[in-house]
Design goal:
alpha/beta
Length: about 325
């Protein structure tokens, strides 16, 4: 019986699935099973999976039904005492499972361990780091924003999973955030303060997906706020503000892919980010976002992206020069 079950939903993942699974096979902790749920792929995903020779790999094929359903199906096949999810284009560092498992065992009252996250682009280049240090009862902090960042992040005890049931297949977005909140309502979280998850962003070049992302996330927020206790209802505005800011950040971080997005939609999100939480006007970061959006509205997204890339490179060079 493996200690950890790793569930990988895969839909048309032929370009990334091999690298993703290799990041699992290279783990320093090796007592695991890999459950890949082939969610109706129409490309060569299944062929790639069949080329991998490892007895710990198990592949189950279903008709396409979405990531939540695929995760639930993976859970039904899992036999480990701990479960972790991994999207078919994300990556782990070799010590991810080992350190998360050790942290959970050191704190038996905890049901979830999570790590810090790097977001990467389609070529694997690091875009942005995300780190948090919330531990113990994190429900309030998690209600403000999904600080786990990625569905590929946490390691969860079987007891915790059994206590909250399955992913909500009715949600078209934010389903992982919803699930983490249900866990946080009953279990303590612990953190491994190390970057161990590479979350790949693959943004399309049309406004529909950003608009759909916002719409789906707001629906999810309505659901979780209905479940939140009365004394935490005041956090709704902060949650909304964080959602709108995230949409703006996604657009700025992927200008090349989002050149067709209507800038008025981004301005609308920026405005709602501020209105939902006016205190953000005290933060210099807000003004940096405003300046970036203003520049994008004046010059082309491609030129703006080149400018931001130049600034990022200069910052990286300065950091290297400052190192002893």
């Amino acid at each position: 019986m493996p200690t950890i079950s790793i569930i990988i939903p895969a839909y048309n993942a032929e370009k990334t699935i091999l690298e993703t699974i290799n990041s699992v096979l290279e783990q320093t902790f090796s007592d695991f099973e890999i459950i890949v749920v082939n969610d109706g792929s129409t490309d060569k995903t299944l062929e790639v999976l069949q080329s991998i020779v490892d007895k710990r790999l198990k592949v189950f094929c279903y008709e396409n039904s979405g990531v939540s359903s695929a995760r639930n199906r993976g859970i039904s096949h899992a036999v480990g005492d701990y479960i972790s999810f991994l999207d078919a284009d994300d990556l782990w560092t070799p010590d991810k499972l080992e350190l998360q498992l050790a942290t959970l065992k050191a704190y038996p009252e905890a049901g979830v361990a999570y790590s810090w996250v790097y977001t990467i682009n389609e070529t694997g280049e690091i875009l942005k780091p995300f780190n948090s240090v919330y531990e113990g009862n994190v429900y309030t902090d998690l209600l403000k924003a999904n600080f786990l960042t990625s569905g590929s992040n946490p390691l969860i005890t079987r007891a915790a999973m059994d206590s909250v049931g399955e992913f909500d297949i009715k949600l078209a977005g934010g389903e992982d955030w919803d699930y983490w909140l249900r866990l946080a309502a009953k279990w303590h979280f612990v953190v491994v303060p190390k970057y161990q998850v590479f979350y790949r962003r693959s943004m399309s070049s049309n406004s529909f997906k950003l608009q759909k992302m916002r719409e789906d996330t707001l629906i999810m927020l309505d659901k979780v706020m209905q479940m939140a206790p009365p004394e935490l209802q005041y956090l709704r505005k902060e949650s909304l503000s964080n959602i709108y800011r995230y949409i703006v950040e996604l657009y700025i971080d992927s200008l090349n892919q989002n050149s067709q997005v209507d800038i008025s939609f981004i301005v609308d999100n920026l405005w709602k980010y501020i209105i939902a939480k006016p205190e953000t006007l005290k933060d210099i970061y807000t003004y940096k976002l405003m300046i970036k959006v203003l520049l994008i509205s004046i010059i082309s997204p491609k030129l703006m992206n080149n400018l931001l890339e130049l600034i990022r490179k200069r910052k990286s060079q300065n950091k290297l020069q400052m190192q002893p």
